[in-house]
């Protein structure tokens, strides 16, 4: 194997934002904070840079990427916004919502980034460092979560370094990601469809649309590799340690991913326990999810027992991630 780039980690500042933009312009790979998770950025218009990004992540090449832009005006240069898309952009941008829209004529995003589709996923992140980098760079930036494919998403610069050292050029440290879950993805190609639950609860989207949102159909029988959002592949979020979901008791050798009050039984058994939210707050739980999974995965436990987590609000996305993490590996 040839030696990769030296990965430098720098604190966010006006100077380092300018440096990040220069690195992107030179075809570099730059990890930066967004409000959801850390993204691994590359120039969306540069096929070579995007190819390096897929390689660094070891990501299946059929998995299309989200183009990040500074504002709605720039988003309109990439895609065509129908009434629903306009309404959702107005209500939730900047913020943890990605819209999949038809590519605009002359859309500069390279085909590798959209995996050859005639639609494009666009998002305006709500994070000062992300926004400053996007403004300074001026072109769209593709940014999947800054982890190797199949690993849990990073919510701190240290997580990115642990996963991608020697594979990317720069990590801009802007503190922990606040939301802790990826963006909600809604396709506005026809009637709006929820492709991935995430940082904006479905209820909020339905309220903005004034109509219920349909959910992406399961992939066609015999063709599991062709879901609408290929990132929804069954084992996408996969720690190495097996997970046991909806655990109401504790077995020997298990660590515990708790939610709400921990049963005294779990404490007595002495398994490593981390609580997503002792008070049962789903927003706090979302912010802790990936970091806690990562810590328990590294704890040497034979299995991680996950206490039941309600499925309303952000609970839908949290359970979606846990279901994927628990799915058998292909
Ligand atoms: O919060 C987020 O969205 C983070 C931060 C860094 O912004 N990014 C992120 O990107 O989660 P990624 O690459 O991990 O997820 C992209 C998802 C995948 O499920 C992909 O299949 C879907 O977006 N996607 C992208 N373009 C699409 C398209 N044209 N049609 C359908 N799905 C698409
Ligand atoms: Mg990801």
Topology:
Elements: E1 8-11, H1 14-25, E2 30-33, E3 38-43, H2 47-57, E4 66-68, H3 72-75, H4 83-92, E5 97-102, H5 111-114, E6 119-123, H6 128-137, E7 141-142, H7 157-164, E8 170-173, E9 184-187, E10 193-196, H8 202-209, E11 214-215, E12 243-244, E13 254-258, H9 264-269, E14 273-275, H10 282-297, E15 303-306, H11 315-326
Parallel strand pairs: 1-8, 2-8, 4-6, 5-9, 10-11, 12-15, 13-14, 13-15
Antiparallel strand pairs: 2-3, 3-7, 4-7, 5-6, 9-10
Bound molecules: threonylcarbamoyladenylate and magnesium ion (MG).
Threonylcarbamoyladenylate is lined by residues 34, 36-37, 39, 63-66, 96, 98, 100, 114, 117, 119-121, 123, 125, 143-145, 182-183, 185, 195-196, 228-232.
Protein described:
With 330 residues, this protein is an alpha/beta fold. Helices cover 31% and strands 18% of the residues. The chain contains eleven helices and 15 strands. The strands form two sheets. An eleven-stranded mixed β-sheet has the order 1-8-2-3-7-4-6-5-9-10-11, with helices on both faces. It has a four-stranded parallel β-sheet with strand order 12-15-13-14. α8 (202-209) links the parallel β10 and β11 (214-215). The longest helix has 16 residues, at 282-297. The chain is globular and about 60 Å long. The two termini are 25 Å apart. Threonylcarbamoyladenylate (TXA) binds next to β5, β6 and β10.
Overall morphology: globular
- Lateral arrangement of strands in the main beta sheet: 1-8-2-3-7-4-6-5-9-10-11
Q: Helical element count? A: 11
Number of strands: 15
Average of the residue pLDDT scores: 88
Bound molecule types: threonylcarbamoyladenylate, magnesium ion
């Amino acid at each position: 194997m040839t030696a990769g780039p030296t990965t430098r980690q720098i604190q966010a500042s006006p100077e380092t934002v300018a440096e990040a933009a220069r690195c992107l312009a030179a075809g570099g790979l730059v990890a930066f904070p967004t409000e959801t998770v850390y993204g691994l950025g590359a120039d969306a218009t540069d096929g070579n840079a995007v190819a390096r990004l897929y390689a660094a992540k070891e990501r299946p090449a059929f998995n299309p990427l989200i183009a990040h832009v500074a504002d709605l005006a720039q988003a309109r240069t990439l895609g065509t916004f129908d009434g629903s898309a306009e309404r959702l952009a107005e209500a939730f941008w900047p913020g943890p919502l990605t819209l999949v829209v038809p590519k605009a004529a002359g859309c500069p995003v390279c085909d590798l980034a959209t995996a050859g589709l005639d639609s494009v996923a666009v998002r305006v992140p709500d994070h000062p460092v992300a926004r400053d980098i996007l403004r300074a760079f001026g072109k769209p930036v593709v940014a999947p979560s800054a982890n190797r494919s199949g690993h849990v998403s990073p919510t701190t610069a240290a997580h990115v370094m642990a996963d991608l050292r020697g594979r990317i050029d720069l990590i801009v440290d802007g503190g922990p990601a606040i939301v802790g879950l990826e963006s909600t993805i809604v396709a506005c190609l026809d009637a709006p469809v929820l492709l991935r639950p995430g940082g904006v609860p479905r209820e909020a989207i339905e309220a903005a649309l004034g109509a219920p949102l349909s959910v992406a159909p399961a992939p066609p029988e015999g063709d599991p590799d062709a879901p609408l959002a290929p990132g929804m592949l069954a084992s996408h979020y996969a720690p190495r340690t097996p997970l046991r979901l909806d655990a109401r008791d504790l077995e020997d050798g298990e660590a515990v991913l708790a939610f709400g009050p921990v049963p005294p039984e779990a404490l007595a058994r002495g398994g490593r326990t981390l609580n997503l939210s002792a008070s049962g707050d789903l927003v706090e739980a979302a912010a802790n999810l990936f970091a806690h999974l990562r810590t328990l995965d590294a704890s040497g436990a034979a299995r991680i027992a996950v206490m039941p987590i309600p499925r309303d609000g952000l609970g839908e996305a949290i359970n979606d991630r846990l279901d994927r993490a628990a799915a058998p590996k292909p």
